[in-house]
Input
Amino acid sequence: MKLLGGKLTVTAAIGILIILVCAGASILAPWVAPHDPNLPLGQRWEAPSAEHWFGLDQIGRDMFSRMLYGGRISITLALLATLLAFAIGIVTGFAAAIFGRWVDMILSRIADVILSVPILMSALIIISGFGTSAFVLVITIGLLYAVIVFRVARAVAMNIVVLEYVEAARLRGEGLMWVIWREVLPNALPPLAAEFGLRFCFAFLFVASLSFLGLGVQAPDADWGSMVKESALAIPAGVAAPLYPAAAIALLTIGVNMVVDWLLSLHSRPHGDNA
Output
């Protein structure tokens, strides 16, 4: 089976399957979750059973149902933040590469200033000032990661705009947008697609980390990061509750990285090699 001009490997297929299962279960959460995720149903830390597959949490809520709804929040926030980062990063990165000179200098210096402060520290400062709503989380992570995407897009575009076919398009009198959409962007897609997967993983882990610190998704809603925090007190008692959301975070991250590795192998493959 071939996708994006390359043969789909076993690891890539496994990664795609993991992503589809996690995304599908999260999207269908309102229809497949057996219980209300915020409704106490029994004793705290009740063991897994036929009715409660993953048992109950610290206040008696169904862990399996909360896992489904938590995944929906975690994946959605990370995906929206990544899309925002790429929308801003690609536009500014391509602009810096194509226009060059003072446009490149100004955008690059702005990126340097933003990256001079650790991303986590910047996020904590912004969230402390503007709150922990989903909107603030998406905007904060999206803007901070847009700087990294800008650098990648700029580097990729600068290697493309000097090639002969781009120069030929300019000499034919093609407009700037035509050159970007028809010449630069198609040839930049493989590395940018791989970067998208990596950036999604970082955004996904970032959301989970902020929630674990109490600065992400707030109760009664939950994502996988906050579920790990809520269940942490069960670890000394030998209860497996914190392992479920932690395993879900690890599994989805591994799945995305499997696909990213495949995309990177396509990009690094010599032209004409379709094996």
Q: What stands out?
A: Residues 63-99 form the longest helix (37 residues). The beta strands are 2-3, 6-7. The two ends are 11 Å apart (CA to CA).
